Amino acid sequence: MNKKLAAALSGGAVLMLALTGCGDSGDNSADKADAWAKKVCGQAQPQLQKIANANAAIQQQTAENSKPADVQAADSQAFQQISEAYKALGDAVEAAGAPPAEDGDQTQQKAVKELDASAVAYAGLQKKVDALDVKDQAKFADGLKGVADELEKISKSGDEALRKLQSGEVGQAMAKQTGCQKPTPSAPPSAQPSSESPASASPSKKA
Fold this sequence. Notes:
Blueprint: H1 3-11, H2 28-64, H3 68-96, H4 104-130, H5 137-156, H6 160-165, H7 168-176, H8 198-201
Helix pairs in contact: 1-2, 1-5, 2-3, 2-7, 3-4, 4-5
């Protein structure tokens, strides 16, 4: 019942996860792009790691065919981690200033807006997961399917500015930075809340 959610989540990671090292030019504009990319990617790595770990936690619940309460706790925690990661990525792009590219200011502002919107969307998914009825397995499965459907929509929309941010010399510079490349998930943090109820396992929400 959690497989669709895991599949949707794996497709919904930030575009920065798809970057791979390539390109190497030494002109002045490339140097500026490299300097900008270092600012962003240095801050991005911990956040991309959070997203990878959250994804792995949901995948683990799928593999283990866990009880609804355990799935709820793990998914809630994962969505909160992803929401916080998107917000921090938006802050990193904002703090780095405009990238050295055409319409850099506008591209930066739109990318920050998209990242912040994703943070809000994942926080909303956390609330929906927290509200699911874990005592009725059929209702829980239906509710989880609704969450997965919404997650799929979120993952397919609103990434135009991020694509633009990651194009051209700036995109090549980001791709060369280890901090903007896809991390390997560490051991899932997750289901430690075995002694906690799903309610106590779901952390406080940000405004």
